[in-house]
Amino acid sequence: MTSGDTVRLTVAQATVRFLAAQRSERDGVEHRLFAGCFASGIDEFRAALAEAKRHEGGPVLVHVETDPLVPAPSSESWWDVPVAEVSQLDSTRQARKSYEASKAGQRPYL
Question: pTM of this prediction?
């Protein structure tokens, strides 16, 4: 691929590629800020998890291509979208308590 070639990516793919390219320098040594990889099948996903386990020094982003319309059984998983920790609204404080209770029962994958 030459520099003039067009690359078509989803927003998620472009974000992972961008973040995986970011670097930081500490004590004269350059470090990756994020490790990033893509997975479009179970074998690639297993390889991505193995890479994530090996990575040291920061977060790992794994972009997994999925089909949201495929009829599949429930995965019994949920997205971690925290509710505000501080609020004057009783409804928000109650939602935070519910979030923390659900989070306590979550098990880490890696």
Answer: 0.46
d(CA 51, CA 32): 14
Report pLDDT digits (tens) over 54-97: 877 777 778 888 777 778 777 666 667 788 999 999 999 999 99
Task: Answer yes or no: do 105 and 53 share one domain.
Answer: no
As a whole number of angstroms, the distance between CA 105 and CA 100 comes to 9
Q: Are 37 and 48 in contact (CB under 8 A)?
A: yes
The reply to whether 20 and 58 lie within a common domain is yes
Q: Report the DSSP pairing between strands 23-26 and 29-32.
A: antiparallel
CB atoms within 10 A of CB 48: 20
